[in-house]
Amino acid sequence: MRTFLAGLLLLLPLLGVPALAVAPDEVLDDPVLEERARALSTELRCMVCQNQSIDDSDAPLAKDLRVLVRERLVAGDTDTQVIDYLVSRYGEFVLLKPRFAWHTLGLWAAGPIALVAGIIAIALALRNRSRRASQLAAAGSAKLSESEEERLRALLAKKDGDGQG
Questions:
Q1: What is the pLDDT of residues 60-112, one digit of tens each?
Q2: What angle do CA 153, 159, 165 make, to 5 degrees?
Q3: Could you give the angle at the alpha carbon of 25 between the alpha carbons of 12 and 94, nearest 5°?
Q4: Using one digit for the tens of pLDDT, what is the confidence trace for 98-120?
Q5: What span, in angstroms and rounded, lies between the C-alpha atoms of 126 and 18?
Q6: How far is CA 37 from CA 19, 50, 69, 79, 107, in A?
Q7: pTM of the model
């Protein structure tokens, strides 16, 4: 029983590790090329799963892409050439992290623009809120004119007279 529990405790840290979908038949014999293939596979999007890398996906297309990456590396392509080949074949969408270029400028700028717009909206709302509060405070502390005070006294006197009668 103790050895079983010890075995479970040893396996516990592995629960947080993502399961890699690379099949044993895909693994290259050259460890350097295999390491490059794994690094490239984490940068490429599975076209089926869309928010998973091809290294994590079990989809048949992801397997095909992993095999294609390894074939290109074995053929002597550099990492950049492999990425360029896949982008030319599948488009920029195959990249999990799009390249910074003129045609992706809107994508890269959207986050900061939204952040700045949110900060401006909050600042304007706070400014309007403080302006309204100061206007209400100024209106509440305004003195009545002489004629307004006389009218108020007359109204209050009339009310007191009506309540007693």
A1: 888 888 889 999 988 988 988 999 998 888 888 888 787 777 777 777 788 89
A2: 135
A3: 80
A4: 777 777 777 778 889 999 999 99
A5: 45
A6: 16, 19, 6, 9, 27
A7: 0.52
Total number of residues shown for the chain: 165
- Tell me, letter by letter, the H, E, C secondary structure of the chain: CHHHHHHHHHHHHHHHCCCCCCCHHHCCCCHHHHHHHHHHHHHEECCCCCCCECCCCCCHHHHHHHHHHHHHHHCCCCHHHHHHHHHHHHCHHHECCCCCCHHHHHHHHHHHHHHHHHHHHHHHHHHHHHHHHHHHHHHHCCCCCHHHHHHHHHHHHHHHHHHHC
Read off the pLDDT of residues 16-56 as tens digits, 9 standing for 90 and up. 444 455 665 667 777 888 888 888 888 888 888 878 888 88
Place of tokens 């295999």: 34
For residues 7 and 51, give the distance between their C-alpha atoms in angstroms, rounded to a whole number: 33
